[in-house]
């Protein structure tokens, strides 16, 4: 029995329901037909030129990504754009962004699991927002910020971790949000000692200091690429006969 794009969509919808996405998000089947027969699925953080090339080389006509390949309105569609090439080569795209962040067992819970493998954490884990975005954990023992930064770097396999220069107090209650979550700082005021996220802009470091929150930037890529084996495992369980390719192309940023 053939596997269709809609079958993949329905399985994803079970563990990361698309209707939970944030209002500004664009998750779902963004390119292709739900009735297309699937020859293989490439799982990637982004649908980049490299991911597209890998899908073609491995015979995958469906790419599943975390980041939407179409986010805002497209006013021009050039021949060398990824979206054009997807359509030209009959490769479908399912993108699951904030639903995968929010989901129980999803990206933010995966971050917690990674940290839990390196340190002791209290059982009670709370969401940062009512819709389930972000997590707040409590360590069993206080720890210095530099020590926690080292643990986070090892747990998430980061090339580097940036952290607040002037925070001297030990930390115990820690919020985490995958990707770029520093806009959540204000609502974390009084709720945590430290906040782990990625893509922290300059002014947010000063806001964190003002709010007495230690801030850690582990990078957008490192805090989200962990979704690839997670989604691959879910799809292999549902479709053991289907070719599933995991494509972690690496952080697009290099450091010296």
Inertia-based shape? elongated
Could you give the order of the helices and strands?
HEEHEHEHHEEHEEEHEHHE
Biggest sheet, in brief? 6 strands, mixed
Instruction: Catalogue the unreliable spans.
Output: none
Overall mean confidence score, pLDDT:
97
Please outline the helices and strands.
Elements lengths: L4 H11 L12 E4 L9 E4 L4 H9 L4 E4 L16 H7 L3 E4 L2 H5 L4 H10 L9 E2 L7 E9 L1 H12 L5 E2 L7 E6 L17 E4 L4 H9 L3 E4 L2 H5 L2 H12 L5 E4 L9
Parallel strand pairs: 2-3, 2-11, 3-4, 8-9, 9-10
Antiparallel strand pairs: 1-4, 5-6, 6-8, 7-10
Produce a short descriptive summary.
With 256 residues, this protein is α/β, with parallel strands linked by helices. It has helices at residues 5-15, 49-57, 82-88, 98-102, 107-116, 145-156, 202-210, 220-224, 227-238, and strands spanning 28-31, 41-44, 62-65, 92-95, 126-127, 135-143, 162-163, 171-176, 194-197, 214-217, 244-247. The chain contains 9 helices and 11 strands.
